[in-house]
Amino acid sequence: MSPLAENAALVVIDMQNGINRPNLGRRNNPDAEDNIEALLAAWRATRRPIVHVRHISRSPESIFWPGQSGAEFQPRFAPLAHEHVVEKNVPDAFAASGLERWLRVRGIAQLVIAGVITNNSVEATARSAGNLGFEATVASDAAFTFDLRDSSGRLWPAEDVHALSLANLAMDYATVRTTDEIVGGVRAG
């Protein structure tokens, strides 16, 4: 990972109330929220740009349907007035959201991505970032996912789903680093 530029953006994905619903199942990485807070603190202290991504579902049955508490940001991850908010309707934060243009207009080439769900919105966004030519880093311990049943009925533990998603990203799309490694780069940058 090259040193972080003064304008490297932190992209925090879907840290909304609905992600804490018990019906989503067992998750991994119980420290993810603390690590996301550490990233936010480092970005705010160095006045780097922060993008908060909020999923707004098109399905009335969704935990992210607009107008209900599940769609709102968790209080500890609420954007400050000057921080950018992007709303998306699909897992990829770049799809039809204006995010790419917002970054390009500001000359932002480096992104650090954190949030949920590792194998869904985090992976989709990191793949697009890499495909669009951004230098993307995913904070491995500032993301989490849930147990997942595959099409043959096998139940995969969240830890395995998370690890495989990060391995997929590390092949071609993003660098994968811990929060401590990233925050160290912020201080050194």
From TrEMBL:
The keyword Hydrolase applies. One of its GO terms (molecular function) is hydrolase activity. InterPro entries: Isochorismatase-like_dom, Isochorismatase-like_hydrls, Isochorismatase-like_sf. Keywords: Hydrolase. Residues 8-180 form the Isochorismatase-like domain. Coiled coil: none annotated. It holds the Pfam family Isochorismatase. Signal peptide: none annotated. This is Cysteine hydrolase. It comes from Trinickia dabaoshanensis.
